[in-house]
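Per-record layout

source: Streptomyces mirabilis
name: DoxX family protein
length: 127
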Amino acid sequence: MNLALWIGAGLLAVVALTGGISKTFVPREKLAAVQGGGWTADAGAGFVKALGVLELLAAGGLILPAAVGIAPVLAPVTAVCWVLLMAGAMITHGRRGEFLYVVLNLVYLVLAAFVAWGRFGPESFSG
């Protein structure tokens, strides 16, 4: 179970890092032209960049606290935050009729919920 939780956190970290880099460093106009990025045309540039920074922080927060043993409780807390972020993403894509992305965000949400449950529960870092 511990290995599955590390793999899940690692996969989410890669997703967060990828999304964070693109939202933080790629101009909003370019993101809006990419499939699945149309929502950025309706959002302010600052909001998109703020989401990108949050995703970059999530990428680190899912792995680093547990890996270095400093405040490892931040890993499952980050997973809970990722659940909330994916719920918002699902709502955004759902309103736009982008149901493929709703399903993809649901997969990420379920994976993050699994990591949060496992790290707060049976495979806690405190034990």
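summary: Residues 2-120 form one domain. The CA atoms of residues 86 and 108 lie 7 Å apart.
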